[in-house]
Amino acid sequence: MSAGRAARLAPALSSALERALEGVLGGAVRLAGAEALGGGCVNPSARLTTERGERFFVKWNPRAPADLFAVEADGLRALRTAAGAALRVPEVLAVGRGGGGSPPWLLLEYIEPGRAGPAYASALGAGLASLHRAPASGGWGWERDNFIGPLPQANAAAPTWGEFWRDRRLAPQLKRARAAGRFRGADAGVRDRAVDSTPELLAGVDEPASLLHGDLWGGNVLADGEGRPALIDPAAYRGHREVDLAMSELFGGFPPGWPRAYSDSWPLDEGYARGRRALYQLYYLLVHVNLFGAGYESGSLAAARAALYA
Description:
The protein has helices at residues 11-25, 68-83, 120-133, 161-179, 188-196, 198-201, 242-250, 258-265, 270-292, 297-308; strands at 3-6, 31-37, 45-50, 55-60, 92-96, 105-109, 146-148, 151-153, 210-212, 221-223, 229-231, 237-239. Helices cover 42% and strands 16% of the residues.
């Protein structure tokens, strides 16, 4: 993300960040500047610079639930541990739940953006496969609910992956869209049939759960200053590894050749392209309907049909 104009930080937020940095750096800290960063579509963010020249990343949101950044921090820590040296994940430095005039905030290591080098695609593919192979005990789901963007994302365990995907992912988003008056007309029932059929459509999944990034679109992957791939802004939980791949293919923004590097490290079976990819993409398309409106309705219908009639 590129820095631009100066960011306006509320005095209470600046004070809270200085106190947090004092704990990180072990001494008195004064902020010298905050530059707004582009790229985020939900939360404002900035690159902080101290009087000694250290740089940090912060994002905040006065309208965010108090635990939004706390659960994101959980995901970042888990991804950082599981990824090891395979992928870069920013270190969590401090989390603020808001109060005293300060909004909720998340303070992270600042990753200097760079240019993707010739090995970037292969490093990303192999690194994501390594992340997905890391032990992820606990079954489908996560220890607490979190968020996909600003929307709640339930993570309670389910007996099977298909039931989890139906009950914790597709059904809540479809219900939200219906409540907003979406999906009327002759094709209204196609999405419902896809959701209802999900346990059967995913019955062939026999792999163990992987730790997922959970929101792996192009804006959440970047090249650092050395050209290495880094992951940011997760909605992490334990699920089927193909979910991350399906999301990466939905809106583009990834380097050519990276899926080949992934499949070279951990091949996919034919069921992914035949129907599971569409069923996983249906979730993100429903999320986009709920966040951004009718422009994504046709895409969600196409994904539901592709999943049903593969």
